[in-house]
Amino acid sequence: MGIDVKMLGMIFIINLSYITLNTIRFMLTMKGYRNIAPLVSIVEITVYVLGLNMVLSRLDNPWNLAAYALGYGIGVGIGIRLEEFLALGYIMVTAIIPVKEESSMANDLRDEGYGVTVSFGFGREGERMILEILSSRKNERSLYKLIKEIEPSAFVISHEPKYISGGFWTKKVKKRRDHLSLKQ
């Protein structure tokens, strides 16, 4: 039982490709890209069957299984990085800050193009300003940085909204979705 380096490389590349495609397809499905996600899944399952066939037809060689597993693991890592790079969709960030008369945080964020809604609450240490900030995921890191620059003590949490309707962002979101639909 010799080691067929070419076969190991093919198994590794095929499974790495499968898992990367799997991550992209899952991301597209979760973000509502209804036209492109099924197309990616066709390529994904074809690659999967090829890779699995190569391993199952040669189970007598444990190196084949090792190459398959290694491709899987590295494919997950690449898929995660690719998802972060593409950063599809939007995030809703809540920043809770102490109330200060001189605070212009909401307007500073608006001037940078973010949608901001302000409300007030009361926390353990007194009155708080609660800023709900809508941003594209591509701007997520710069938004966090800007919040910390303006108010280092800000408490920040975020989540991805499933549905967006109304407000000044609606027209921007609709234009982007219509543009993407035309591409698909």
From TrEMBL:
GO terms for cellular component: plasma membrane. The keyword Membrane applies. Residues 114-166 form the DUF2179 domain. It is found in: Cell membrane. It comes from the Bacteria. Keywords: Cell membrane, Membrane, Transmembrane, Transmembrane helix. The chain crosses the membrane at residues 6-24, 36-56, 62-82. Residues 23-80 form the DUF5698 domain. It is a multi-pass membrane protein. Belongs to the UPF0316 family. This is UPF0316 protein I6N95_12555.
